[in-house]
């Protein structure tokens, strides 16, 4: 008696433990993948948008999956939605396998294995929730099919075989229409049932009917404009792999910057081992530092670093870089290139939809004064569930006080130079921004720091003289004072020039010490060390 009770409790306990572990991992160790997936779609509550799902197979699975994915917007929703969906998949598969004739323990074990494999597919940000729902739909369709078979067997045993084949044919085609590769899942369940029936004729007939049904699906290839591989696997089967924590870390930096948590971004990058710091990570580290007016102070704390100003978008550019470069132009204040970068990211997004880029396009046009263009994007965002409030708060003439202050602040930094460019050279862009508004601190620091990373001391001095000294704004930052010393030493400047430009005696004394032991790691935090040791 006691043993039977323990046996009955074992399976629920395993499922409960599995669910808790799955939720905890995705919530606390892999949460930023959810934000990436949510931002890379744009779910609209409009008739035209909903009807667009019929242009591809698995319309019901895709519609339900994308509808749920939009709620990844909320902090704790992603892990809960995914865990519940995976548990539903496991339970549906277990019931279907048992109904097909498999033993309870074997069905449970196989369902847990398949559920776990499906969970590993979710380690990739490109794997869609709709793919899990497609599997649930296929297994659920088999449960309906088997229940109907039981009913018509009681009504007319002589017609059971005919009904079975007709129902199998119709369910496979409708399963493909509703759930994509779920039709294959349904067919596999029917074949398992035929195998456990121990009747060779039944198995042969079922196999032939299933093969014919799946073959007829290929007739949809011209309509759906998919190759055979994508047609039968739609909306995607996924690939087994390990968690990619390097990508998760980049997404963490990206989204924490997006949320305005600059200190989190800086601490995240500083705590990452040097060998694991990617250009994307240091890009956001510098963005966060610049937004806190600390770019010059933080620039040399991590090496190598990446300002993003030397980035050129090309066929080999990582998607994460393409999706983030608009943040640089927005920080600098050039709304034309912000809009261009956001449109480019939208083009490279799945199905050319990216809700975050839509927000950025609306913001950039509001700041530049193109209300009609801004309204185009705001009207689209108003038709979403999670961004409706954001869009209404940004409607021209109806902005909240906080939104109005933010937009007014950004407007003072926009590029007012009347020029036509044939290049996206960041130096030209930043120079024009500073000509428009010399008080643009972010643009100034990015210009000076770019010069220093290139060790282009002549341009550094010209830029410093033009945008700092000539404006009556000599800089006291340690980095710039050290760089000025390098320039003055290289030009063999007079003592009067040293006194004029160097305002920090403590740094001058340390510079004299460095000259006696050049290249010493005791001065690793200085620009002198960087200038002498970095190629």
Task: Provide an overview of this structure.
The structure is a single chain. The protein is an all-alpha fold and 535 residues long. The protein contains 29 helices and no strands. The chain is elongated, with a radius of gyration of 30 Å.
**How many beta-strand runs?**
0
N-C termini distance: 76 Å
Weakly predicted, low-confidence segments: none
Helix and strand run:
HHHHHHHHHHHHHHHHHHHHHHHHHHHHH
Q: Can you count the helices?
A: 29
Principal-axis shape equals elongated
Q: Biggest sheet, in brief?
A: none
State the share of residues found in helices, binned by percent: 55-70%
- Please, what is the average pLDDT? 89
Strand % is: under 5%
């Amino acid at each position: 008696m006691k043993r039977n009770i323990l046996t009955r409790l074992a399976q629920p306990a395993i499922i409960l433990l599995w669910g808790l572990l799955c939720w905890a991992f995705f919530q606390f160790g892999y949460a930023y993948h959810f934000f990436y997936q949510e931002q890379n779609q744009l779910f609209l509550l409009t008739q035209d948008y909903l009807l667009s799902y019929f242009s591809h197979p698995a319309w019901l699975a895709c519609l339900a999956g994308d509808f749920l994915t939009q709620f990844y917007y909320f902090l704790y929703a992603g892990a809960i939605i995914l865990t519940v969906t995976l548990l539903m998949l496991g339970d549906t598969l277990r019931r279907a396998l048992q109904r097909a004739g498999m033993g309870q323990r074997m069905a449970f074990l196989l369902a847990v294995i398949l559920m776990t494999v499906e969970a590993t597919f979710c380690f990739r940000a490109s794997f869609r929730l709709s793919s899990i729902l497609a599997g649930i739909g296929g297994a659920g369709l088999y449960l309906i099919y088997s229940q109907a078979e039981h009913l018509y067997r009681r009504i007319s045993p002589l017609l059971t075989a005919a009904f079975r084949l007709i129902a199998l044919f119709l369910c496979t085609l409708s399963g493909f229409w509703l759930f994509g590769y779920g039709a294959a899942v349904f067919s596999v369940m029917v074949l398992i049932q035929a195998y456990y029936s121990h009747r060779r004729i039944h198995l042969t007939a079922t196999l032939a009917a299933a093969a014919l049904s799946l073959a007829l699906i290929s007739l949809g290839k011209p309509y759906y404009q998919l190759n055979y591989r994508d047609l039968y696997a739609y909306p995607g089967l996924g690939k087994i792999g390990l968690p990619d924590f390097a990508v998760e870390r980049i997404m963490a930096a990206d989204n924490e910057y997006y949320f305005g948590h600059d200190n989190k971004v800086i601490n995240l990058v500083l705590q990452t081992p040097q060998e694991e710091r990617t250009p994307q990570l240091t890009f956001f580290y510098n963005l966060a530092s610049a937004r806190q007016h600390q770019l010059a102070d933080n620039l040399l704390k991590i090496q190598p670093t990446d300002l993003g100003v030397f980035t050129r978008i090309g066929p080999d550019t990582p998607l994460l870089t393409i999706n983030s470069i608009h943040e640089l132009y927005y920080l600098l204040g050039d709304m034309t290139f912000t809009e261009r970068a956001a449109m480019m990211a939208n083009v490279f997004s799945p199905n050319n939809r990216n809700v975050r880029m839509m927000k950025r396009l609306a913001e950039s046009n509001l700041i530049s004064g193109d209300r009609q263009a801004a309204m185009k994007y705001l009207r689209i965002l108003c038709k979403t569930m999670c961004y409706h409030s954001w869009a209404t708060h940004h409607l021209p003439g109806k902005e909240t006080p906080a939104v109005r202050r933010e937009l007014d602040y950004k407007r003072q930094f926009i590029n007012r130079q009347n020029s036509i460019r044939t290049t996206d050279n960041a130096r030209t862009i930043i120079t024009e921004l500073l000509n428009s508004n010399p008080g643009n601190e972010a643009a100034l620091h990015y210009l000076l720091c770019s010069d220093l990373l290139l060790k282009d001391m002549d341009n550094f001095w010209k830029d410093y003289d033009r945008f700092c000294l000539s404006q009556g704004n000599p800089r006291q930052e340690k980095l710039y004072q050290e760089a000025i010393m390098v320039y003055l030493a290289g030009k063999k400047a007079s003592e009067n020039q040293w006194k004029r430009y160097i305002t920090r005696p403590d740094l001058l004394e340390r510079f004299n010490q460095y000259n006696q032991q050049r290249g010493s790691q005791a001065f690793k935090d200085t620009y002198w060390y960087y200038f002498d040791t970095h190629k």
